Structures
1.
Amino acid sequence: MNDSKDPCSACPLADRRDFLREAAGLAIGVLLGLGLSPARAAALPIRHGTGRRMPGGDDCAYPIPAGDGATIDKKHQVILVRFHDVAYAFALSCPHQNTALRWLPSAGRFQCPKHKSQYQPDGTFITGRATRNMDRLPIRSDGKQLYVDADHVFESDKDAAGWAAAKVPL
C-alpha cells in the first residue's frame, strides 16, 4: 500500500516523460489504425489555384495532381485533394459554421480555426463541434482533368451514398 498523500504517486505514468512517450505512441497508433502514416499525412503539400469554369455548365476544371496534395480555390470555394491515389473535392467551409478550413501540416489534418473541428485528408470528421464530415462536391474525370461541380454539395448525414461516391480513383 502506498502511504503517500499524492494520488498520482501510484500511477504508472506519473513521470511526465513516460506520459508524453505513451501519448505519442497512442497518437501514432491511431493514425496507423486509420490508414494514415504520420509522415505521409503531414507531408500533404498545399497549393493555391483557381479552377477554370466550363462554358455552359456548373463544372470547374482542374489539372489532375501528379501526387498527393491539396489545392485551395478561394474563388470557387473548393478544396481539391489527392490523397492515397484518390481525388476528392470539398466545400472550403467547415460544415459547422461555414468558416474556411485550414490544413495543419504538423498534424496531418484539416481544421476549422473557429471551433477546432478536425478532419482527415479524405474529409472524414475526427473531433470537434461539427456534427458531420466535410461536405464533398461532385467530382469526375476524363483522364486528363478533374471536373468539380462547385454548386452542389453532398452532406454525409443527409446523403451518405452520394458523399461516399464523390471521389475519383486515380
2.
Amino acid sequence: MYCHENNIVHRDLKPENILLEQGKDMSQIKIIDFGISVHHSGSEILTESIGTPYYISPEIWNKNYGKECDLWSSGVILYIMLSGTPPFNAPTDKEIKQKILKGDYSLTDAVWNGISSEAKDLIQKLLEYDSS
C-alpha cells in the first residue's frame, strides 16, 4: 500500500523479497529488490513482461497492467503461506503461464479444510482476473 500510494509498482513481489527485521514485531516487514520496479502514476498502461513466473499476474503476461499486478502477487504469496504450494504449479514456465491465464487453481484440497473462509475469500479476490 505504501509503494502504491507513492506510485511505485514493485513487479516482482515474492517471498524471497519480503523480510522481517530481527527484534521487531511482525508488523515491521521490509520489501526488497526494487530492481525492476517502476514509478507509475496510474494513467499509463505498463506493457513490459517482467517478473518471476509463479508470481506474474495475467495482466503482465498480457502486457496490459498497472499496480494491480502487485496485488495478484500478494495473493500468490498468501496462497503459498497457507498451503505450502504455489497456486499455479507446473514443471515449465509455459505451463505456469497457461494455468495463470486460465485462473486454474484450487482451494478444495485437504490442506484448505482448516483455513478460514475469510482467508480463502481474500485469496480469491486477490487472484481474480477477467480474461474476457
3.
Amino acid sequence: MRRTSWTLCLTLFSCLAAGPASAGLNDHHVLVPPSVHTAAPAHPVATAAHPAPPHPAATVPHPAPVPVPQKIAANPALLARVQPLLPSGMTVATAASGFKNEGQFIAALHVSRNLNIPFAQLKTEITGADHDSLGQAIHELQPAADVKMALTTARQQARADIKATAPPKPNADTDKDPR
C-alpha cells in the first residue's frame, strides 16, 4: 500500500514538474501523465447535447459542371459558329466529348482547320490517355508548324466565337426604370 502511494506521488510529481506542455487534464478532467496525454481533437466531438455545426461546404450546394457538348448545344448562336468547323458527319456531342471546356474544344477545331490537321487525330492527342496540351498535340502531329503562333491564333478565334455568342450582360445604365 505504501509503495502504491509512493508511486502515485512520484508519478504526480513528475507530471507536474514536466510542465503544462507535457502533462495536463484530458477531456474528462483527469490528470494524465505525459506519456498518455493526447492532443485535443481538431474538430469538437458532437454529442446529443451539443451537435456539431454543419460543415460550410455542406450547406452550399455546388452545381455539377455542365459537359462541353451540353454547354454548346444550349447556345444556338455558338452552335451555329461551331458546326461549320466540325468534320463531315461528326456531331457536336461526339466532337466535344472529353474536352475540359468549350474554349479548349473550339480552339482545337480552329487548329484543325487552320493547320489542316484531322480533328480526330488532334482530339485523340488531347483527350486520349496521354492528355497532351493543345500545343503538344500540334507539335506531335505537325512538327514543322509554328506552335506558338498556331495556339495564339486558335485561342483568339475561340475567344471571339464565345464572346460574339455570349448572351448580353445587363447594363446598369440601360436597366434603370425610365420613369
